[in-house]
Write a structure and sequence with these properties.
InterPro entries: EmrE. Keywords: Membrane, Transmembrane, Transmembrane helix. This protein is mainly α. The protein has one domain. It has helices at about 1-25, 30-50, 55-65, 65-90, 95-100, 105-110, 135-150, 160-190, 195-220, 225-250, 255-265, 270-280, 290-310, 320-329; strands at about 115-120, 125-130. The chain has a two-stranded antiparallel sheet with strand order 1-2. The longest helix is centred in the middle third of the chain and has 29 residues, at about 160-190. The chain is globular and about 60 Å long. Mean pLDDT is about 75; it is low at about 315-329.
């Protein structure tokens, strides 16, 4: 499935987030600047892309129609996603943050029933509640087991305080990212393309990033030149390229929860890219033993996701709400 390949490509660029955030923390950079600068750097590039495509006016129009929705779900999808990630990286090891983040592949499946699809029938448009994708959930749990095996070899070095500050913020982020993404797809209703939506969400989240930046100036001072450079790289690779690719993939399958879960599960491959990147860039040892088995399980899980979405992708359409009510009677 093309969307899965796009998702894996996005994960490769997303991996720079964990590698460079860890690098910045090792050199004394503050998590406040790691998070806020990424989105401040993203905005000019996204603005130019939307401007060149002559789509700016439509974005502003959509945002003015529903300003509260844009502010709310941009905060959930971007601020509650990235600020906890960088905060956790300041207090927990990079492998713990990257591993815990993979909870998002299960979170994406669990929040599916919170949303509705609109279908056209002879009686007009009907809203259809999404069903819990049991098969996708089981495969996602399999992938999560693979991630856990990769992390297991380092678990004996953890303390309770490290677990609290290194895990809980990432759990919040793992649910916030798919929730904010899906809610904004719902708000936009297909009227905006991916570049427009990412630009609009970045623009709507600016008040929160400005507030965090002001707090950073007061508490930790200005960022270093090294942190500015590394955050700029994260903004381009993860913020612009990876986010756009991932949103393109989810946009293309937004009306099918099984395929959407498969695309969101591609984020598990970030662990593989992070391991490879840390070995090459930060000279960390190559994983062995259980970690190797975990890598193989992740690959198997992605293959199963691809197989099931191809085989069963259109065989189980959701049941309209009015039919469920009739069945109850």
């Amino acid at each position: 499935m093309k969307e899965i390949l796009i998702g894996i490509l996005a994960s490769m660029f997303f991996a720079f987030t964990f590698i460079l955030n860890r690098s910045m923390e090792l050199t004394g950079g503050s998590w406040i600047w790691s998070s806020s600068l990424r989105f401040l750097f993203m905005l000019p590039f996204l603005f130019l892309i939307v401007l060149v495509r002559c789509n700016l006016k439509q974005v502003i129009h959509e945002m003015l129609k529903q300003p509260f929705q844009w502010l709310c779900w941009s905060f959930v999808g971007f601020v509650l996603f990235y600020a906890p990630i960088t905060f956790a990286a300041a207090f927990g090891p990079g492998w713990l943050v990257a591993g815990t983040w993979q909870l998002t592949i299960v979170a994406g499946v669990l929040i599916g029933p919170l949303f509705f699809n609109t279908i056209d029938t002879n009686k007009g448009q009907l809203k259809v509640r999404n069903k819990l994708q049991t098969r996708a959930l089981l495969v996602s749990f399999l992938i999560l087991c693979g991630v856990a095996l990769i992390q297991f070899q380092n678990a004996n070095h953890l303390t309770l305080s490290t677990l609290v500050v290194g895990v809980l913020p990432v759990v919040i982020a793992a649910f916030a990212y798919p929730l904010g993404n899906r809610k904004m797809m719902e708000v936009c209703g297909g009227r905006l393309d991916t570049f427009q939506r990412v630009f609009g969400m970045t623009l709507a989240s600016l008040p929160f990033w400005f507030a965090l930046s002001a707090f950073g100036f007061v508490t930790v001072g200005s960022p270093s030149t090294d942190q500015l450079l590394q955050t700029f790289i994260v903004a381009i690779s993860s913020g612009v390229i990876a986010t756009t690719l991932f949103f393109i993939a989810t946009d293309r399958v937004r009306n099918h929860q099984g395929k959407l879960a498969a695309v969101e599960a591609t984020q598990s491959t970030q662990v593989l890219f992070v391991i490879f990147g840390e070995v090459v860039l930060l000279s960390t040892p190559w994983p062995s033993g259980l970690a190797t088995a975990g890598i193989m399980i992740i690959v198997l899980g992605m293959l199963l996701h691809s197989y099931f979405t191809q085989k069963f992708g259109t065989k189980h359409p959701p049941v309209p709400l009015y039919k469920r009510e009739v069945q109850k009677l």
